[in-house]
Amino acid sequence: MFRVSxxxxxxxxxxxxxxxRFYPMLHxxxxxxLTLILEGRGTRFIGNSIEPFREGExxxxxxxxxxxxxxxxxxxxxxxxxxxSVYFRPDVLGERFLRLPETRHLSRLLSEASRGIAVGQPAxxxxxxxxxxxxxxxxxxxxxxxxxxxxxxxxxxNYRIISDLSYDRPMKDADNRRxxxxxxxxxxxxxxxxxxxxxxxxxxxxxxAFCRYFRLHTRHTFTDFVNRTRIGQAMRLLxxxxxxxxxxxxxxxxNNIPYFNREFRKIAGTTPLKFRRKFREEARSGTS
Length: 288
Hints:
Elements: E1 12-19, E2 32-39, E3 42-46, E4 49-53, E5 58-61, E6 67-71, E7 81-88, H1 95-98, H2 104-112, E8 117-119, H3 125-133, H4 139-156, E9 159-161, H5 173-189, H6 196-202, H7 207-218, H8 222-240, H9 245-251, H10 257-268, H11 272-285
Antiparallel strand pairs: 1-7, 2-5, 2-7, 3-4, 3-6, 5-8, 8-9
Helix pairs in contact: 2-4, 3-4, 6-7, 8-10, 8-11
């Protein structure tokens, strides 16, 4: 189970993660988490939001919000995953401090983090540099820099809330392991056949009991979760490859391309071709 290290002489934790993949299990913790993706791409689950992630993105994840960054495989080479994260308890700044007129915007931002926040996408270069500097500082200067980063996020307004629902109560560890097992099954088989029966078997439940259980803990039906995972992978492939829409649909487990197009529009709010065009236009203009 994921645990944030406890510190004796510091009020918050700064952690660099490097490897071939990020922590692979759905997890949560009482700490608020601010993470900058330095290298790595894949699909991220935050609250009930399922979307692709990539390097340069900055996320603020509230206390006890379930989340995981699933690193995508790279054909012909090992995946790379590198991020910098800050973990701090909601009370580290103090309730009275956050009620001050000068800090109410920070209180509002941390409250919104209970639904997960994506900053910029990618985060502005100056903000990312400010955040990276935290690792080089210590003591009061480190705390001051964290406040500067949170302030910059809040006053910019350049962020979006990504989960439909807020979370304040953590899942039990046993429930977390069950849901993580189902997540892994879907993530590793999205390109092929996924059955409700197999998912229920992984959770060691009957199909009827599993359907109720999965919706209770994820706020999605199992079918919706599978579709959102597949569409998240399709978004990533549209951004990273020149494959046709039909090819990408087949690669993401859709044998019926009109159905793929309908699901994509329902989840992404646009067509696959318009999604790709918008991403590439923003990339050329330097805002994505």
